[in-house]
Amino acid sequence: xxxxxxxxxxxxxxxxxxxxxxxxxxxxxxxxxxxxxxxxxxxxxxxxxxxxxxxxxxxxxxxxxxxxxxxxxxxxxxxxxxxxxxxxxxxxxxxxxxxxxxxxxxxxxxxxxxxxxxxxxxxxxxxxxxxxxxxxxxxxxxxxxxxxxxxxxxxxxxxxxxxxxxxxxxxxxxxxxxxxxxxxxxxxxxxxxxxxxxxxxxxxxxxxxxxxxxxxxxxxxxxxxxxxxxxxxxxxxxxxxxxxxxxxxxxxxxxxxxxxxxxxxxxxxxxxxxxxxxxxxxxxxxxxxxxxxxxxxxxxxxxxxxxxxxxxxxxxxxxx
Length: 320
Prior knowledge:
Order of helices and strands: HHEHHEHEHEEHEHEHEHEEHHEH
CATH topology of the largest domain: D-Maltodextrin-Binding Protein, domain 2
Number of domains: 2
Shape: globular
Number of helices: 13
Helix content: 40-55%
Strand order of the largest sheet: 2-1-3-10-4-11
Largest sheet: 6 strands, mixed
CATH class of the largest domain: Alpha Beta
CATH architecture of the largest domain: 3-Layer(aba) Sandwich
């Protein structure tokens, strides 16, 4: 009897999690939640809220940006993985929350638990210091770090977050040791940096640009292969002798179990949303660009990105 009850419970749960064809035809029939897996005030928060603000005409329902922060993005990702796969709960994910965290610890999801709706952009980091910092360029920083191993600090999300990865790669290439200070997102990291609690903030253009335009901070290098068209005066790491390249994708994901017709509706709405003039303008004001990718092309990109992250995790974990 107990076994029969357990089977019936499993069947009931499966039926609850799987939307019916009738529900798919009516999608969306309520607001769509876009989960932000990091703390307020960072680049994910800014992009998610900008995107959500323009999506109602294209979805036919409001999009609500909802923070579920913690665990290096895994709390938000777990929330979406456990939610009903009816297209009403999505996540604005990145390498750490979707690809890296399941490689480092046991979680209720894997990278295969999600399917991409579409990528908003692909952003390098800006290695940022205060305007009164003693380093004028990346080589100054490296030389100082060699003289004072473990004394120069930088902040980021622990568990090989997208802000931690390029600094660890730089340390590896340059043969230096920096002090890592963990935070729960780009917002708290940036606040601590501006407050003088850490020396370096690896951050994104959307976070850095307002302070950079005021002359309050200096960017020593960017982690792109080439200079950014919107910030052409900022040098790359590569041109300063340290070939470190890394960029974070900001991508909306749905549950892998989402029905194909619902996923198609989401992708069609996404395609219109990223082209929205108001959204494009908001992203441009952040100092970022929309670098859109969706559908099968992006699924192929994700396969390669997943392989890249596995190799990177192996490399950096071995370093430790």
